[in-house]
Each structure stands twice: as C-alpha cells, then as structure tokens.
Design goal:
The chain is about 30% helix and about 20% strand. It is of the alpha+beta class. A hairpin with a 2-residue loop joins strand 6 and strand 7.
Amino acid sequence: MPPSIRLHRTIPAGLAIIAAASVVFLGGCTGETPQPTATAAPPASETPAATEPAPTETAEPPVPFTIECDAVLTPQNVYDFNPNFGVDPDYSASAEGITGVVDEAGTACGWLNQTSGEVIEVGVATPPPSALDARKNAAALGSKPVPTYGTPPDVEGYFLMSGDSGEAQVFHGPYWIVIDSSSFFEPGDAQLIVTAVLGNLPAA
C-alpha cells in the first residue's frame, strides 16, 4: 500500500500579521470607556474692592468779632499811655499779626503819635478753637513768654521784637489779642496797653 501523502497547508503571511495585530489590540482594551479628564477653569479675575476716599478736613469758618476802637482802648487809656497818641484817621492794618487778626474776622484799630508819627496797632479776634490753638502754638514757638501780661492758663502772653517793631500777643479765653508798634522795644513797653485791652473786652 503506498504511503499516504499528508499535505501541509501554509497560512499566508498577510493573514498571520493581521491576526497578531488583532490580539495585541484586544489585549490593550480594558473594556471601560475612558472618561474625559476634568480641566480646572482659570480663576475668575477678582475686582479690587473699592476704597473709600480719605476724609478731608474742612477749615472752620472765622467767628466775626466786632467792637468799636474806642471800646478796645478808651481815650483815657490812650492818654494814660502817652498823651501824644490819638486816633489815626488814615489807619489800615499793616503789621503781620494785625493782618492775621483781620483774616480771622476780628477788629483792628490804630493810634498815631502826633509828634513822632509812630503808630500803635491793636487787633482782637475770636478764632474758632482749632485756629486759636494754632495761633497759640505759633506764638509759643516764635515768641518769648511774658508772665507779667497775665497768669497762665487764664492769660498767656508773648512778646517778639522783629526788625524795628515790637509785637505783643495775648490769649485770654476766646480772645486773640495782637498789639504792635515801633515804639515797643521790650515787653514792658506794651504792658499798659495789654492791661487796658484785657480790662475792656467783654467777659470771656
């Protein structure tokens, strides 16, 4: 009996490669549908909080103080100081301290020496509290204290010689008093005027 001849069927190479690829592809699947990865949203831009504007201080308005000049210094007061002085008919405030009194809505008066032409200026104002404190501080820093003008704290007195003019400043209650003249060379020269003005003003 003749030997049987066994035929070997050869699988084409292309089919082998496709089969192998299918196995690899199936091996890589997990059987689960991949979920999309969450992406963080960019932070919303923060609007800066509105800042309140800083409050501005409003200057207190001046407190007008009106008084007749012959009530600030009576004719007798002027005569007692020096008989050569009389009311200055052409007076206008010129000394720095006196113009400050005018700025504070106060009263300014002048008396003229009929012989020498020297003028005594007297000004009285009642500034609001903050302005009065500022005037006191300026006088304390720029002038010399004068205890004979009165007893602190009821009366605070100062004197300053500036150029050819002497200036006395006195603070009493709500009053700011300035007395200026080229006839003042030291605190005592203005003493009689200071005493008279303090005595003539309405009670503080």
